[in-house]
Amino acid sequence: MTDLDRYDWQEASLHLDERGHAVLPGLLNSDQCAELASLYEDDAAFRSHISMARHGFGRGEYKYLNYPLPDPVEALRHHLYSRLVPIANRWSERLGMETRYPERLGDYLDECHAAGQCRPTPLLLRYSKGDFNCLHRDLYGDRFFPLQVITLLNHPQEDFAGGELMLVEQRPRMQSIGRVVHLERGDAAIIPANYRPQRGARGDYRLAVKHGVSEVTRGHRQTLGIIFHDAK
Predict the structure, then answer these.
(1) With contact defined as beta carbons under 8 Å apart, do 151 and 223 qualify?
(2) Burial of 216 (0-12, 13-18, 19+ CB in 10 A)
(3) 38 confidence band (pLDDT: 50, 70, 90)
(4) Residue 2 scores a pLDDT above 90
(5) Would you call the peptide bond into 68 cis, given omega within 30 degrees of 0 as the criterion?
(6) CB–CB of 132/56 below 8 Å?
(7) In this structure, are residues 164 and 217 in contact, taking their beta carbons and an 8 Å threshold?
(8) pLDDT of residue 163 exceeding 70
(9) What local confidence, expressed as pLDDT, does residue 172 receive?
(10) In this predicted model, what pLDDT tens digit does every residue of 216-229 receive, in sequence order?
(11) Domain map of the chain by residue range?
(12) Is the confidence at residue 1, as pLDDT, over 60?
């Protein structure tokens, strides 16, 4: 299990507030990346297989992991949630929302399941040359956790080219802002699942955020996505 204590979570929180994302360098080591990437071939580990082109989501494919989750994914999901929940609750407070998230992921998932959201959402994604992912949000029901984590499992430039993680912030009554998040193998990006607070002249307002992946121009790109709410 990766030692999350080595990261400066106050700095990560500041980056999320100011830039809408934060990067955790080397969240996974090379062996962990290879192990998770190879899991893609084990159909028994997944509950569904999605072709993006078939649904108009882009090109490429992804698979949702099934319960029980693989041990490394289960551990990351629980431990990352415990680090991110203070940020999630602070965002809710800043936006004047009544929603508060429990300290433990298990308690939050109990709330999801009581609302009919019972299907696991962590997933592995695979892109080949010419593949891309349209701008989107990963929402699967009325309940959603406001942050999610995307980890790159192979080497940019060496294993693939292109395929940049993109964020677009849709500002009210203004033009949108696009950002590219650069990751190396094993790095993880923390991004908003739906929106984030933004400080304005009259206080905080809600800034809508979508994410996607630019076209892969060479090779193969794989990522692990950890979403903390479950799906209907």
Answers:
(1) yes
(2) buried
(3) very high
(4) no
(5) yes
(6) no
(7) no
(8) yes
(9) 80
(10) 999 999 999 999 99
(11) 4-227
(12) no
Rg of the Cα atoms in the chain? 17
Non-local CB neighbours of 100 within 8 Å, separated by 6+ positions: 89, 92
d(CA 161, CA 5): 32
CATH architecture of the domain 4-227 equals Sandwich (2.60)
* Average of per-residue pLDDT values in the chain: 96
Residue 171, Cβ neighbours under 10 Å: how many?
13
Residue pair 35/107 in contact by the 8 Å Cβ criterion: no
How far lies 145's CA from each of 118, 149, 175, in Å?
A: 14, 11, 26
Cα 126 to chain centroid distance, Å, stands at 15
Mean per-residue pLDDT for 200-220?
94
The string over 5-41, giving b where at least 16 C-beta atoms fall within 10 Å of a residue's C-beta and e elsewhere, is eebeeeebbeebbeebbbbbeebbeeebbeebbebbe
- Per-residue burial over 106-140, b if 16 or more Cβ lie within 10 Å, else e, is eebbeebeeeebebbbbbbbbbebebbbebeebeb
Is this prediction's pTM over 0.70? yes
d(CA 210, CA 170): 8
Instruction: Decide if pLDDT at 203 tops 90.
Output: no
